[in-house]
Amino acid sequence: MQVIQYPHPTLRHKSRPLKRVDAQLRKIVREMFDLMYEHRGIGLAANQVDLPYRLFVLNLASDPQAADEEHVFINPVLLNRKGSTEAEEGCLSLPGLYCNVRRPETVRLNAYTFSGEEITLDLDDLFARAVQHEVDHLDGVLFIDHLSPTAEAQARDALRDFELEFASRRQRHEISDDATIAARLAELEKLRT
Ligand code: ZN
Prior knowledge:
Shape: globular
Structural class: alpha+beta
Strand content: 15-25%
CATH architecture: Alpha-Beta Complex
CATH topology: Peptide Deformylase
CATH class: Alpha Beta
Radius of gyration: 16 Å
CATH superfamily: Peptide deformylase
Distance between the termini: 21 Å
Order of helices and strands: HEEEEEEEHHH
Helix content: 25-40%
Number of domains: 1
Bound molecules: zinc ion
Largest sheet: 5 strands, antiparallel
């Protein structure tokens, strides 16, 4: 398992709700946490590890010792978006790029836990921002899609570098073509959604 980087097409995949949660998925989620800690992230969505599942993991402390801060949100839905606030964001799929992003200040998150329990959380601050960033991933949206014209101009060179790197990795056959990637995601989706 590895974190895929912009502009990998799986990052644009809109994932469908999961219908089956099993031991193998539990193992995948554990690996996602470990990978997230390795990269010092606070959140990681399934399509960032090239999987079409509607779930993400989160630990705002980014600390494997703080196990009580670990959250897995399955089939998350955002409601009651209120207010507007701007703060800097980064993303493990765009390493090294940080931009100001304007988002609603508070949100209500509805999701399922691994035990099948439905939860509702009213969130603000970093928790609200991180959850919005991760739910965006599951809809194929990246934080660079929310930039102001000024921030977008500042990010342009970095995005071009990611695109060139991706193209050269593809030329070296380290990344499959779009059709192969789409077929693999469809196959995985068939089993769990
Ligand atoms: Zn991200």
